Amino acid sequence: MATQKLTLVENALDSLEHAISHLNAMPKAPTAGTFKRIILDLSHVAELLFKERLRQIHPAFILSDVDKYPAATAHTVTAADALRRLQRIGEVEFTDADQSALKTIREKRNEIEHYEFSIDATEAKVVIGSVLAFIFRFATDEVGLDWAGRRIEDPAWKRLNEYAEFYEIEKSRVLDALNGSGIPTMECPMCGNETFDMEAEVCVLCGHSEPVLQCKSCKSGYFYSNVEYEDTELCPKCEWENGYAAAYCEKY
Questions:
Q1: Across 106-120, average pLDDT
Q2: 212 near 222, Cβ under 8 Å?
Q3: What is the pTM of this model?
Q4: Alpha-carbon distance 196 to 186, whole Å?
Q5: Strand, coil or helix: 239
């Protein structure tokens, strides 16, 4: 039997079509397992597109150790390292929306692979919608693929419109509603948008809920999930400044 091979783009496309098949077959009451498979597939798509863009710059850049090029058995870069190489070597720019989508999908993938995983339908739509918006933008602008056209023309791909458009439309609606409402907001640690209601302690866009703590130094609000040391009762900014001051004093 002949050896079967998928290029980076073909591999990414295969994972995207696998995600689409789950979206098209999604029941009215989808389970966490359904969302899990879709999120893992889309995370894989993004990672492979990063590597394809690096390959277009030079094939050696997809290897963790470029000196091992062209060894076929050498390890390839992680998604995080690929992202950094694209920024530093490829001078690829990632918008705030891009960074937010990638942060969200990375955190959800880590939950799936290393811990317990929980998600509701609203949050899933935001996560899926944001990463789909990124994938199609990156595939078109950076890799030169015509996936955006296929999303409109291919009946099997039309379900994607619901998720990408939902995210963009819903984000716009929520931001408009919050603007001028007087409700104090913060950047949501889950979806990365300025849509976390500090009083209700819930993101109005993705539904992520988490207590808002008060920094004992500057009195600003912060999230427990954003700090490194839980006992300091300091926000990330004051925590960093406090650590820097301590290191500076020790030095002198």
A1: 89
A2: yes
A3: 0.78
A4: 5
A5: helix
